[in-house]
Amino acid sequence: MKAPKSFLQRTATVSGKFSFAAAIVCAVFLYLKTQELGSDDPVTASFIAGIFFFVFVGGLLLYIGNADIPSFKPGDGSDG
Question: Has residue 75 been placed in a domain?
Answer without folding.
Answer: no
